[in-house]
Amino acid sequence: MRLKANLILFAVAIIWGTGFITQGVAARYQLAYLFNGLSFILAAIILIPFIPRGRKKQPGAWKWMLVAGLILFVATALQQVGIFYTKIANAGFLTSLYIIFTPFLLWLGFHEKPHWMDILAVLGAGLGAFFLSTAGSFKIQPGDGLELIGAVFWGLHFVILGKFASKYEPVSFAAGHFLVTGLLNLLMGLVFEDLGQLLLLPVVGAIAYRAILSIGLGYTLQVWGQHHTPPTDAALILGMESIFAVIAAWIILDQTLLPIQLVGCGIIMISVLFSQLKGKPHVIPA
User: Model-level pTM greater than 0.85?
Assistant: First the structure.
């Protein structure tokens, strides 16, 4: 079961990494909230038929769906708006820093002290992020700043799934907190964005891909995978999405990085791997 879960999480990393392309398409039309909103709502609707029937009520499930959905709303909004002002590769690698932030979030929220290796990993990742964002200058791009803040919320989402979502049926939990995320994004989009942009064919295709694969399939498999594999394995495997994001951006969007930015990506990846060498997992399901 653990091997199966790890292979499924690896597939999720590929789906998420290539899914950054759809976010790049939406960003070209200055769509963030409407794009996120419709993608998550559609994903929730798609999952409804797959929710097991006749199961006992799960006390507290909706409370944690609301919490997870709110956190995911902030994470997705920061990530998508950040892509307006940065490259897909930057967004992918900076988002992967959630793995390194996770032990410090556990420290703040659950008094689980971080390992000394976590501290070194954060320092290394900070250096890599600086190289990636500044490209040799001393100016951090605005979009990269949003991605860094978003990575904290991705880490918090990972913690919530590891600590609480494993108590509940995974498909219903996924659909429930997708719906919360989608509705919050949609409300923001109706206020700040142009509904007419949703009629453009590239945007329709991007929403369909993200809803069906990146969200509907990917996040649901993440919930299931984290239920059946140690959190350390899950964090390490899912963190590989950044590599697939860079490859997809290079092949499809012809986005390239300067040598110093590639060095930054390498340092981030090494830091992420280093943070996973400990014996103690980051997130221990409650």
Answer: no
